[in-house]
Amino acid sequence: MSSVPSPAMDVKSIVVLSPEKELQFRRPFTSVVKRNLVISNAHPTVAIAFKVKTTAPKQYCVRPNSAVVPPNTKLEVQVLLQAMKEDPPADYISKDKFLVQVIKVPLDILNLANDELAGRLQQLWTQAEQLSKSSPAAGADVMFERKLKCVFLPEDSAAEQDTLKPSTANRISDTTAPIKQEFSDATASPRMSEASKGGPSAANLSSTTAAQAAAPLPAADTKVSPTEHSDKPPAPTSAMVEKELREAREKAKTLQAACDGYKAEIERLNMLRQRRGESGAISHSGSAGGNTALQTQHVGLPMPVGAGIAVAAFLIGAYMF
C-alpha cells in the first residue's frame, strides 16, 4: 500500500534550505563563480519535488534546476554565476533573486517510468500553482516557496575589513522602493548571455535583446530603386555612338563649307587690297618728283573675319575630338 502525504502536513516544516536567505558570490566575476544550495527533506516517509527560478535566467546556471528528493535525504544544487567581461563597480548592489518552490510527492509516483513520472509531476505542479493563485492560504500548505537574495562580496584580500558589507548591502536594498521582479525557470546549462559580454546583470536587457531579435532582416533579393544607384552615366550603346558620329560628321561638313566660304572671301579681299596698294604706290611716286621707292603696304585680315575663323576652328575641334 503506497504512502500518501497527509493533507494537514505543512510542507514548510519538512524542507530545509542551506543557505536560507541569501547566496553570496565573491569577486572577481571575470570567471565563473560557483555556490552550493543544499535542499534537505527532513520527513522520514514523504518525498518532495523542487524547482529553482531566478530573475536573471541568462546570468545564472543551476544544476539541477528541478528534481525529486526522497524522504530523509538532501540534494546539493550548484548555482553558477556566469563570467562577466569586467567586474561591476565596488558599490554595486545586486538585485538578482532566486525562488525555490517545493511540493510534496506521493511515494508511489516515484516508482513510475521516466516519461510517466514527468507527466505526473507536471500535474502536481499545475494543481499546486492553481491552488496558490485561487487561495494563497491553502496553497501555502501544498507548495512551499522561499526567496534568496544574491549578494556580491569583495575579493578575499578585503574580506576581513568588509565582513559586515553583505548585511549592510541588504539593509540598503531594503530601504529602496520595491521593484516587482518576474521569476523564470533557471537553466541547467550555461549559455551566451548579455552579462558575459560586459553587463553586471542580464535581467534588464532581455526585452531589448528580444526586440532586436524580432526585427525583420532585409530580403536578399531586395531591389534598389534607380535613384539609389551611383551617379555614373549609363554605358553608351553602339547605336548611340553611331548616331553621335553621324551628327558630328554633318556638323563638320557644315563647318567645313563655312570655312571654305571664309577662305574664298579672304583671298578675294587680299587680291583687292593688293591691287589698290599697287595703284596707290604709282600715283604717290609720280607726285613726289620721281621717287621710285614703293611704300610697303601691310596686308592684314579684318577683325570680324579673324574672329569667325577662330570660332569655326574651335567648333570643329570640339566635335571631332
From TrEMBL:
One of its GO terms (cellular component) is plasma membrane. Signal peptide: none annotated. The keyword Iron-sulfur does not apply. It is found in: Membrane. Residues 164-178 have a biased composition (Polar residues). It is a single-pass type IV membrane protein. Residues 14-153 form the MSP domain. Residues 159-240 are annotated as: Disordered. Keywords: Membrane, Transmembrane, Transmembrane helix. InterPro entries: Ig-like_fold, MSP_dom, PapD-like_sf, VAP. The chain crosses the membrane at residues 301-320. One of its GO terms (biological process) is endoplasmic reticulum membrane organization. GO terms for molecular function: FFAT motif binding. Residues 200-220 have a biased composition (Low complexity). PANTHER family: AT11025P-RELATED, VESICLE-ASSOCIATED MEMBRANE PROTEIN-ASSOCIATED PROTEIN. Belongs to the VAMP-associated protein (VAP) (TC 9.B.17) family. This is MSP domain-containing protein. It comes from Powellomyces hirtus.
